[in-house]
Amino acid sequence: MAELLVLDRIVAGYGNAVVLDRLGFSLAQGQSLAILGRNGVGKTTVLETLMGNTRVMSGAIRWRGQDITRWPAHRRVRAGLGWVPQEREVFPSLTVEENLSVVARPGPWTLDRVYGFFPRLRERRANYGNQLSGGEQQMLAIGRALMTNPVLLLLDEPMEGLAPIVVEELARSIRRLCESEGLPSIVVEQHPVLALEMTHQAIVLERGTVVHAGPSAALAADAALLDRLLGVGMPS
Q: Which residues face 153 on adjacent strands?
């Protein structure tokens, strides 16, 4: 299977502070990846680095065979990286439809298709961003990323602060994006079992480097390994 994305011994961080230390992994076309780890190990920094928002000190990022290590963020978006940030960052003074339309780029994801994927956004299309619930804002953040017509979707803590019923709905949507819609994704998520259910592959970070890599299903089935890597205390 062809490699879509490769991180090759990336050393990156903020200013002089190193957060990612010789980080390396790859993502194949058509696959989805969970990035797991305890708090403060660099999970969000991986996505920030992919989007060009950190200082890369050494190593390389290859996207569809091309070195994009020094590309600015806007060029990465145009190349197909779609980002759903942890803070959601919806525009509060724009309507749902305006939030979606303002970032639209040509491609298969249109306003109607996003509304079909998230019917609640169609119902709320005339509401402003600050009039939405947390779950609706997350749907809007994902829908807005889809409107850029990405090749790869990066999701940072998509379930944070949401009610369990909304979490289940969004998890199904994210799985559907990869499985049915053919859109690969990288998911950073504090709830490891949920993240593993949504993805094909998983890596676990510790001190900014990969300490485990393998199929998500195998890690989800190994309670002892999960507990050792993440301290989740799952029953065996």
A: 82, 185
Which residue's structure tokens are 């999701």?
Answer: 155
| 112 vs 200: CA distance, rounded Å | 29
- What six digits make up the tokens of 75? 């060029």
Alpha helix positions (H), 51-149:
73-79, 96-101, 111-117, 119-123, 134-147
* Location of each CATH 3.40.50.300 domain in the chain: 3-80+151-230
Answer with the residue of higher pLDDT: 31 or 232: 31
Q: How many whole angstroms separate alpha carbon 112 and alpha carbon 134? A: 22
Q: What is the pLDDT of residue 218?
A: 97
| pLDDT per residue as tens digits for the range 6-44 | 999 999 999 999 999 999 999 999 899 999 999 999 999
- Three-class DSSP category at 119: helix
pTM for the predicted model, two decimal places: 0.92
Lowest-pLDDT range, 11-20, 87-96, 147-156?
87-96
H helices within the chain, ranges in order?
Answer: 43-50, 73-79, 96-101, 111-117, 119-123, 134-147, 164-179, 192-198, 216-220, 223-230
**Is it true that domain 3-80+151-230 has CATH number 1.10.8.60?**
no
